[in-house]
Batch of 3 targets.
Target 1
Amino acid sequence: MFTIINNIKISKNFYLSEFECKDGNHQVVIDSELIDKLQKLRDYLGQAIVINSSYRNESHNKSVGGSPNSQHLKGKAVDIRRIEGLTIDEMVAIAEDAGFNGIGKYNWGIHIDVRENKARWDMRG
């Protein structure tokens, strides 16, 4: 048997462990506004949200080709997997309604963050 590190419920549907840096060291930095808006998004959808990436420390961010100014470094961003039954554009519209300022479109899903200023990008190929 094993113990899940950071197995702490931080909202109705999310655990701290879901936001850990994926480098294996269990580091977490997370902005409370991100949790609030992500829970709002989850409540609206009525189905699970799979987080591909959240907090990244500098070395992990560099290893995955992240921007040196990435919101992931500040605990203000998540990348979420495409939600079954929704297009990427539909996911973006719902994320905008939930109040996310930074939104990026990818083939695998969307990046959403709580940066101060509005930013949009489309990396689908």
Note: The beta strands are 51-53, 77-81, 102-106, 109-113, 119-122.
Target 2
Amino acid sequence: MSLKTQVESGIKDAMRAKDQDKLRALRAIKSLILLEETKGGASGELSADDELKLLTKAAKQRRESADIYKTQNRADLLEKEEAELAIIEQFLPKQLSEEEVKAKLQEIIARVGASGPSDMGKVMGVATKELAGQAEGKVVSALVKGLLA
């Protein structure tokens, strides 16, 4: 079942349950999907990779907004962002723990043959593809720096 179908089904369920937070988050996801499908040069259908990128971007935006609202003591807006983030994360793959990410990075470093900080680009190129949607880029970058130092 495609992401679009899952989201549309979720929207109907949220409308029946009168769950406004879930409805708002699912409509935001659907909007992103429709924009991506209709943008210039698009084929009209999204691949699984494109769907993953959209969801990751949406989740990142919600996290950043939540951080801003937290620093500005806007509990009302913070609550909305966190509720939307929780719903978006239901569609994302399971996030890896820091230890799991570190183990995968060590495997990638060995496979690529990286030996020092100058090889960070090689490692990050492979790591971002393999860990897409499973770990945040900031976490991956920090761990790669630590492992190559």
Note: Helices lie at 3-17, 20-38, 48-71, 75-89, 98-112, 120-130, 137-148.
Target 3
Amino acid sequence: MRLWSIHPRYFDAQAVTSSWREGLIAQRVLAEPGSSLRSHPQLQRFLEAEEPLEAVAAYLGGVADEAGERGMALDRSRIIAAGSLREPLVVTDGQLDYEWGNLRRHLLERSPEVAARWARVWRPQPHPVFVVVGGGVAAWELA
């Protein structure tokens, strides 16, 4: 499961679709308190939110917004919470950089034209649910 901290504007169509799918999986896991997948490292940030389901709903909303900008249709009725966050989630600049390196490698392999569009971006903007703070790569990423 990969729940990117990067704004979906930098994604190719495959990453938009997979982010939607992975977000829906995260939503299902968070809605089931006894799920063994709740310990998945990618869910850590959402579990730390005051309202984890609201946080993942906001994440899904951001992905759906980008899909809509591209003329892609995602079924927003699958989002089970309102998606209203009182406080943004936190992502470190080190984590954002780490993910950017991973995403760029994926884009170079499968969507070179998208990679070329963003070649001059040193650090991407975060997904709208995140605010960037100083720090290294997240411990859950390296686990």
Note: The longest strand covers residues 89-92.
